[in-house]
Each structure stands twice: as C-alpha cells, then as structure tokens.
Amino acid sequence: MLHTRDRIKNGFLLTSCLAVLVLLSPKITVAETVQQIVFVLTKTYEKMENLQADFTQTTQFADFETKATSKGKVFFKKGKMRWDYFSPNRQQIFVDGGQLLHYVPEHNQVIKSHIGRRTGLPINLFADLGKMQDLFTISQNKKHELTLIPKEKKSQLTQMVLTLMPAPTPPDLLIQKVVLHEENNNRSTFVFHDFHINKKFQNDPFAFQLPEDAEVIER
Known about the structure:
This protein has one domain (4-201): Lipoprotein localisation LolA/LolB/LppX (outer membrane lipoprotein receptor (LolB), chain A, Clam).
C-alpha cells in the first residue's frame, strides 16, 4: 500500500504528464464539429516548432481539505517537454519519448520512469494528434469548452475539460485552462498564460544534464 507522501508524488507526476496533452497545439480555430477541431489541432501542431508558457497548478486531493498550489513554466516541442516548478518547491520534469526524468534539486535526486498505457495517454499520441478521437470520446460543451473522456478502461483519468480563450489573431483560440479528473477523485486545474510560440533559445531547454553526485532512482 502506498504511503500518503508516495500517493501525492505519483499524483503530481501523473497530472503533470496528462496536462501536456493540451499544450501540443496551443492555437486552434473555432469549428462547428469536434472532427473539424481535431483536424485544425493536428495541422497547427504539425507547423509548431516549440511552445513556452507560464502555468499555475492547483490540485485538490481527495483525502485533504486544503488545495496544493504550484507555479512554474512549461516548454514543449514534438516528442519532448520540460516542466519547471518554481514554487512552493523547485522541481523539474523532463520527458523525451517515453522516458520521464523527475529532478528534485533539494534532494539532489533524479527519478527515472517510463510513460505507458497505464495513464491511458500513450506517448505516441503526442506524435500523432490524429489518434485523439481513437483514445477519447470528445464533446463540445460550450463554444469555448471541450470534454475528453478516455476510451481506455484502465485509465486513471476519468475526464479532461479544456477551456479556450480568444487569441490575439482571431478567430484562433488558446487553451487557457485544463481540469483533470482522476478515478481516485483527485482534481487538478492548470491555468496557462504568457504563451511564446516558436521561440528561439540560446541553449536547448530540453537537454537534461545529470547533476554531479545526484542519486538516480529507476522505477
């Protein structure tokens, strides 16, 4: 049986990885049908080189009354992502293909694990958004709100709700908020802002350098 601390850590990693799905295509056009929206998402993603955004994550764990709030910055490009948490504690998450690295500077510790079908969101979806409708039942609740329900019965995610906002270049939209509902009744909300698309970086933000003398734990 998992201890409470391990449950929180596992929930943190799961919700962070799930959230990246909505960052794959930051700009979409309002469409009349879900099929058209997915088509535009796919085309936008194919043209996008990278994405950077600030985020606030608020998590309500089922066993706790108080909410946990974190802030940071996320970087994404096809097949790779990086989450930098600045508060309340500094942490970094790197994903390259199916491998995930979770670095905690305070402990000088790196946890290596793999993302698989256990989450209901296989990593190959990131390389082909056309598979979205194969993995989810998608409905459009309002003009600026979508609900995605995983078809995978073993998924820990029960539904994902996306809230959209107008972009500076109408009629495009940006994904402003994501709410993840898990089967254990945990709920995580991500609010994104200050988007930068196809930004030129001096150094590769996706290159992880293993810190000297860091403890490496493989799971």
